[in-house]
Design brief:
With 1123 residues, the chain is of the alpha/beta class. The strands form 6 sheets. Strands 7, 9, 10, 11, 12, 13, 14 and 15 form an 8-stranded mixed beta sheet that branches. The chain has a 7-stranded antiparallel beta sheet with strand order 17-23-20-21-22-19-18. α13 (486-497) crosses α14 (512-526) and α17 crosses α25. The chain is extended and about 145 Å long. Residues 498-882 form the AAA+ ATPase domain. One of its GO terms (molecular function) is ATP binding.
Length: 1123
């Protein structure tokens, strides 16, 4: 009970004599005084005498002189005339509130109550309200009270509220008196009686106001409500209508006594009401997303169209009927179907199912399909396990799938286009959208932050959070190779101290990854190490490569960052295990280098393991393995006597067995008759000596085989005895009972332990621990990965897989809870579509940091979705969410003055000449230009490659007359030129330390270049530079950098054939995309080499449609080189 916890100087336990004839019952009541003391309990008055006279003076002082309120708590009342009670004095009078006292409780209170086991995870806000009321309410004489307290520095604050309440009470009572006087249904006696009661209450209210200190109006009231082992700090807000609104700010558990003297007893019902911010936000968002200008509504329309196209395609393909058994290939199978619909494409997925799903059989709309999915999830129906495989090729009437599984058992199943992967993605997007629109994101305000509305204003907290300081010297030294600029410091500060989102735009080479690494290190440094910080931060991106790129540079708390989820084409995420093993080997190598004696100790630990295994499961094979380890690995540590003994034991074991029955044929082949021996007897002897069995023979046996006696009859008797002896000795026998450990090996074990003093001293024990540690580091990636996951401050995954089973399990989230991170950092965020971004954004409680560049590759949208819809012209769809939120951040700043967006202004990747070119051609017009502070070209960007020595801008001219564009966009002469120069440079003395990137805009050109590399370079040569060369389309290069970059533009046309009727896309294809050009021309450090038709790109039409390439050609002519 709450009163039991009150232990102040004004609490007295006393022995009391009951002066009444009836026994007092245990319970709560009030102390009274009218010439003598009495108690009012259980609605009865009992006259009493306080026996403890030594406490009576103090009790008289507090009760009669100070006029304190006194509650009595009967502790023991088993005796007839005597009982024990506790008197609890309160310095302030009890006050009546004639209306319930309402306090709002929100998500934070709910989460704390669940965490502290006050309620269960499944319990809702309404159940919590009931529990809190029970814990806080105090029943005295069948009436309800509760306790409040304010801090010593502001004891009177609570009376401000109470005074205002009592003034209102008096006003209401006077109004009631007036109504009674005017009530014609009452007689005069009834009116007089009712008015008398009202005036009595008014007098009490006025007396209370007179006693309360007079306070000026305070802006904010803060006090606490106490209950059984809990207290709730409460704040007062004033609504727009001028009403008071009380909100619990947190829920605090306590185990110790309450020692506050400022407790106040309030007589009133206390009610806790649903103050979930999420429900208010959900209502606001519900109205907003119905508007045509809603950002989320536009993406709902896009998702619906995307889904309709997916269903339409699945229905058009229908069931694929397999004609023959699957034909194995190098990396999968070829499947021959009765017919291959034209809708079936490379990179689609096939599913093998028992029953054709309803979305193919029935005429489902997308909305109906989604409703069915949601219903299944609501009902908790188990999902069918579906085997799904990616199509790598569709040609020549065959469909090739990639897999390392055996699919022979699946051949009798039905084949359909799989939408399972899409379905999983759809379900995750739907779950994120649902959390957003219901205000149940980790940050419930996220929906209002995203939508272009001012509704967010009424929820913004004007109270500033404690500022997180930026770089410390240790982090700066660890992360930055150059002194961080003011611009970089500001970016870090914005990210750390944003109240919700931060947008860091990083043009090429401006050090986005460095900034992200610094942010993570600072958050880790300032994290409360006594709290649970596992997976506090999520680092994510749209693609595995982007995620791996950033986590490869992280080393938080000395641990590699675990990555969850795998590529769809692999069974396990090999990269994760490779990273773990690499980290483990680095640590173990470092330990062994610093403690070389551990190398020997590791051999001893291995020996212990061999001994242990042998003792538990003794066998001749294990005995031989153990003895060989002693002889070959411990020879430098053991004395000659022990080694000789070990050799003799090994020889005896090897002589007693053969490891292959096939070798016995040499024994059976021995000739024991005169005729047979004269035929090839000596040859059979030699064969036996030369076989593996020959090594098992002793000297006498070898002598018989090597030296034939002149007395052949006597000799054949010797051979016959030897033959049977060897068969009897060496023939493997079936063992029907467990072998016992060999006593000689046990003795050897004891001798070696004594000789090496294994495990004897403290140093040995320490070495033993370290040796075990090294063994785990080097040989147990699964346990090591689990251990790293358990202690990692940072988790990582792709955006889609951030809701996967593996990462949810690692976070140890209850089934009914959602995954929540303190901070979510999204790299290459401009590439992520809004619905994928929402998946991770709804998981961020404290801050969302979006890092990217909307001037580079855009987010991925399905051209089929927008080409036939009105969405093609909609900025919400065509513009990245990153760019949209950057604009939105500026609007939010205008509301609260907090800066949330910044563009990095210094690039460190590329040659200053190329840096200036990229800034001028892609960023300056948007007021996002940047500088290149590394001016020492010779130090940072020198390359001595022949023909282009120290030249950053190069154009290799491949004239239109040399070769034309080919179908599906490839150009062989460009591929040939690139491979020729690659041959010159990649193995040259100047180029052997450089890495090379070959970028193009077309998949067919990539294939052409790769084939030419295979033709030009041997397998060994290709293996030697595989880590220094990447060939791919521009889409796979964002976020990467190379010393030298070739850009194959492919497009070429005779300039005389160019006319105004030709559309820019027909002439230049993907080259008209400024975003793609920006990426393709900004990956290099030292030199960018464009390979293409100089005349074509020097034309007026090129200047008009692909100005950036035209300008680069001019740069090459002016300050670079033309080859």
């Amino acid at each position: 009970m709450i009163l039991d916890a009150i232990k102040t100087d004004t609490v007295f336990q006393v022995e009391v004599k009951n002066l009444n004839s009836t026994r007092v019952e245990i319970g709560l009541g009030f102390l009274k005084y009218d010439n003598n003391y009495s108690i009012f309990i259980n609605e009865k008055i009992y006259k009493i005498e306080i026996i403890d006279k030594n406490k009576l003076d103090e009790i008289d002082f507090f009760f009669q002189v100070k006029n304190y309120t006194a509650i009595i708590n009967i502790i023991e009342a088993s005796r007839d005339k005597y009982f024990t009670m506790e008197i609890i004095f309160f310095s302030y009078p009890i006050r009546n509130l004639f209306v319930p006292f309402y306090v709002s409780i929100d998500e934070e209170i709910l989460a704390t109550a669940r965490k502290r086991k006050i309620i269960k995870n499944k319990d809702d806000i309404n159940y919590l309200a009931k529990v809190l009321k029970e814990k806080i309410s105090i029943k005295i004489n069948n009436e309800t009270y509760f306790l409040v307290s304010s801090g010593n520095s502001s004891k009177e604050e609570i009376f401000q509220f109470l005074t205002a309440t009592h003034v209102n009470n008096i006003k209401n009572l006077k109004n009631q008196i007036e109504k009674i006087e005017n009530n014609i249904t009452l007689n005069n006696l009834e009116k007089e009686e009712q008015i008398k009661i009202k005036k009595f209450i008014i007098k009490e209210e006025e007396e209370y106001i007179d006693k309360c200190p007079q306070q000026t109006v305070m802006k904010e009231l803060a006090f606490s409500i106490y209950g059984d082992m809990i207290h709730l700090p409460v704040k007062k807000d004033i609504t727009e209508a001028g009403d008071y609104r009380f909100t619990a700010t947190k829920l605090v558990s306590y185990k110790n006594n309450i020692k506050k003297d400022s407790l106040q007893l309030i007589k009133a019902d206390i009610e806790f009401k649903n103050g979930l911010v999420s429900e208010k936000i959900a209502k606001d968002l519900g109205n907003i997303v119905e508007n045509d200008d809603s950002y989320l509504k536009k993406w709902d329309e896009y998702s619906k169209l995307e889904g309709e196209i997916l269903l339409k395609k699945a229905k058009a393909i229908g069931e694929l009927k397999l004609l023959d058994d699957p034909i194995p290939t190098a990396d999968g199978y070829d499947l021959k179907f009765e017919s291959i619909p034209e809708e079936l494409e490379e990179n689609d997925y096939l599913s093998f199912v028992d029953v054709i799903p309803s979305y193919i059989k029935d005429d489902y709309s997308w909305d109906e399909y989604i409703a069915q999915l949601e219903q299944r999830n609501t009902l908790g129906l188990k999902k069918e396990t579906i085997e799904t495989f990616q199509i790598s090729k569709v040609e020549h009437g065959l469909v090739t799938i990639k897999t390392d599984k055996n699919i022979s058992k699946l051949k009798n199943k039905k084949n359909i286009l799989s939408i399972y992967g899409d379905q999983v993605q759809i379900e995750r997007k739907l779950e994120a959208r649902k959390r957003l629109l219901t205000g149940k994101s980790a940050n419930p305000f996220l929906g209002l932050i995203i939508e272009d509305t001012e509704n967010i204003k009424k929820y913004q907290n004007n109270k500033k959070a404690k500022k997180i300081e930026g770089l410390t010297e240790s982090i700066e030294n660890k992360i930055f190779s150059n002194t961080p600029t003011d611009n970089q410091m500001e970016a870090i500060d914005i990210a750390l101290n944003t109240p919700d989102i931060a947008i860091i735009q990083g043009p090429p080479g401006t050090g986005k990854t460095t900034i992200v690494t610094a942010i993570i290190e600072i958050l880790n440094e300032q994290a409360d190490k006594t709290a649970q910080t596992k997976g506090d931060i999520l680092v994510t991106g749209i693609q595995h490569d982007a995620v791996e790129n950033i986590i490869s540079r992280l080393n938080v708390n000395g641990l590699p960052t675990p990555k969850f989820g795998k590529k769809s084409t692999t069974l396990v995420d090999i990269t994760s295990f490779e990273n773990v093993m690499k980290w483990g080997n680095e640590i173990s190598t470092n330990v062994k280098e610093n403690l070389p004696e551990l190398s020997n100790y590791q051999k001893i630990k291995d020996l212990e393991q061999y001994f242990d295994i042998y003792i538990k499961t003794p066998s001749q094979r294990l005995a031989i393995k153990l003895l060989k380890h002693i002889i070959f690995e411990l020879s430098t540590l053991l004395n000659s006597k022990t080694l000789l003994y070990s050799n003799e034991l090994l020889e005896s074991f090897e002589q007693s067995t053969v490891d292959n029955v096939e070798k016995l044929k040499y024994i059976y082949a021995l000739r024991t008759t005169m005729i047979a021996f004269n035929d090839d007897g000596e040859k059979r002897n030699e064969d036996l000596l030369a076989s593996g069995i020959g090594q098992l023979l002793n000297k006498e046996e070898k002598n018989i085989l090597q030296n034939v006696d002149s007395d052949l009859d006597a000799y054949l008797i010797k051979i016959q005895k030897l033959k049977y002896s060897l068969i009897n000795r060496l023939y493997p026998r079936t063992i029907f009972k467990a072998e016992k450990p060999n006593n000689e090996i046990i003795k050897l074990k004891d001798d070696i332990e004594k000789e090496l003093s294994m495990g004897g001293t403290t140093k040995d024990k320490l070495s033993s621990v370290l040796a075990n540690y090294i063994n785990e580091l080097e040989n147990n990636p699964f346990a090591l990965k689990s251990l790293i996951e358990e202690y990692s401050f940072v988790f990582s995954s792709t955006t889609q897989q951030s809701m996967g089973k593996d990462i949810t399990k690692a976070k140890k989230i209850a089934k009914e809870d959602s995954v929540v991170y303190d901070t979510v950092i999204i790299d290459e965020a401009a590439r992520v579509s809004p619905m994928d971004l929402l998946i991770v954004m709804v998981q961020a409680k404290r801050r969302i940091i979006l890092v990217g560049d909307h001037r580079q590759l855009p987010h991925i949208v399905d051209e089929n979705v927008i080409k036939d819809s009105e969405l093609s012209e909609d900025d919400f769809i065509t513009k990245s969410m990153f760019g949209y939120l950057k604009d939105r951040a500026k609007k939010l700043e205008s509301y609260d003055g907090i800066k949330r967006a910044i563009t990095l202004k210094n690039q460190y990747r590329t040659h200053p000449l190329l840096g200036k070119f990229i800034s001028e051609n892609f960023y300056d017009m948007h007021k996002e230009g940047f500088e290149s502070p590394l001016k020492d070209v010779q130090k940072y960007f020198y390359q001595g490659l022949k023909e282009i020595e120290n030249t950053p801008a190069i154009w290799i001219d491949v004239k239109n007359s040399e070769c034309k564009e080919e179908g599906a966009w490839s150009r062989e002469c460009e591929a040939t030129k690139i491979v020729d120069y690659l041959r010159k440079w990649i193995f040259s003395e100047e180029g052997k330390k450089f890495d090379f990137g070959i970028i193009t805009f077309y998949r067919k050109q990539v294939t052409l270049i790769e084939n030419k590399i295979k033709q030009e370079f041997s397998k060994d040569e290709r293996e030697s530079f595989k880590d220094r060369l990447k060939v791919g389309t521009v889409d796979s290069f964002q976020g990467m950098e190379f010393d030298i970059v070739f850009l194959s533009v492919v497009r070429s046309k005779n300039v005389k054939q160019i006319n105004s009727k030709l559309k820019n896309y027909n002439l230049f294809g993907f080259l008209i995309s400024k975003n793609r050009l920006c990426v393709s021309m900004s990956r290099q450090k030292k030199s960018l080499i464009v390979v293409g038709d100089r005349e074509f790109f020097n034309s007026e039409r090129s200047k008009q449609d692909v100005e950036e390439l035209y300008n680069f050609l001019q740069l090459c002519e002016d300050k670079g080189k033309i080859l």
